């Protein structure tokens, strides 16, 4: 049974120093405010897993929360590079960052294996690329039926999975729809989970095609309206494209980034909007 | 881009980027199923759907199948893609059910570096992976798009830094380091069949799979393309000349780009 908690209580309880954390959301429904709360809580030495690190992990990495990043595409979508991510890899600032790099198909299948309770997943992937040379969670396996050699990726089972969704009821049953990325798999692969939602309602409306995570599969739900900003929540908010563009200038400069952290994260109870 | 949308363009007035986008759109056949990347491929695919290929099926890696966006999406997960799609599925499904078994005809890719055998690098510049000169975004969906689609089209701006003899890192395999990887690895798709640039078109030569200049953009000289290519570029015996964009293509392209309303990624 999921518990309905305040965001700060949920983060304090569920996310520990040194944890492996997956915060998913594929352009849509990115749990940004939960990420800000993890920065505010001062978590350190996290292994951050995410297909598309984008701004949420650029901010966590710049704030010194991460020891390692497991990912498949690290950029600012539609804008360019992630400068805090680059600074950490190229200059170890503010702390060195280890990376474990995959393709989207590989990462998606790692979550599928994790959610399925299997040690690994098979896919037709990585063949002919240089990725397996640098990533030890990519290997090969021979099909016992045909003898064909296939790519194998190790299951990903985070300590805690964090996602944002449109809504939940008071029992903690979660509905979300639109582009659903790998959020369901990330929650089901994780030992603990936190779902932030736009609203907690007395009764969930029937929503054709909605993905539902039942209350008993979720650890905690926190009501965080606008919790995916600057990404969007279909039916609730639009993507704030200006924020993504503005982030480029803020993140390029360590001093500007520090000011941003002081004002936007540490200077407020909750991040604005 | 400095499109003056208020002025009706003459067919002779177009940018090299517009020629590249139009050439890329013309490479898509009506009815084809196309796995689309954001940026130039997305612009070209949406132009094709509005011109000669109304039944083009667009798939984006965010999970949207058969999407028909009324405007250019700003990102791979733009809400307009989900709202106008036949179906929206999760990311594991898009790769496992739709791409992997060979249901997609054309993969449409860009990159930071491409080499003489059509291998693409979007991972690191520099030979030391652990200490790169430049850290790039990484693989995303491209490695499996490059292997599993029926064929691959690459769209990139031409420069010696981008068109290198051998890429520093193979993120997405074209024809391998020696041009023979696809046969040796038993990869399902044909791989890159065309690289469309702002200067012209390169295609793998039949026997060696080495990218060879097969067409030039209007007003572009072969020497110009050679100078922008980081290996001794071979030129096809019969060199084609690209037809300039028609007034209609230009008009629709500019109307389409005006719907983006924001910076386009590349």
Explain how this protein is built.
The complex is a heterodimer of chains A (273) and B (266). Chain A folds into two domains: 3-101 and 157-265, Glutaconate Coenzyme A-transferase (3-Layer(aba) Sandwich), CATH 3.40.1080.10; 104-154, no CATH class. In chain A, 31% of the residues lie in helices and 24% in strands. Chain A contains nine helices and 13 strands. In chain A, the strands form two sheets. In chain A, strands 1, 2, 3, 4, 5, 9, 10, 11, 12 and 13 form a ten-stranded mixed sheet that branches. A three-stranded antiparallel sheet of chain A has the order 6-8-7, covered by helices on one side. In chain A, strand 9 and strand 10 (174-176) form a beta hairpin. In chain A, helix 2 runs parallel beside helix 3 (54-62) and helix 5 (104-116) crosses helix 7 (183-189). The relative contact order of chain A is 0.20. Chain B has helices at residues 16-26, 40-50, 79-83, 91-99, 142-148, 181-185, 222-227, 247-258; strands spanning 33-36, 57-60, 64-65, 87-88, 106-109, 113-115, 120-121, 124-125, 134-135, 151-155, 163-164, 192-196, 200-204, 211-216, 234-241. Chain B has a ten-stranded mixed sheet, with helices on both faces. In chain B, helix 1 crosses helix 2 (40-50) and helix 2 packs across helix 8 (247-258). Mean pLDDT of chain B is 92; it is low at 1-8 and 262-266. The chains are: A alpha/beta (273), B alpha/beta (266). Chains A and B meet through helix 4, helix 5 and helix 6 of A and helix 3, helix 4, helix 5 and helix 6 of B.
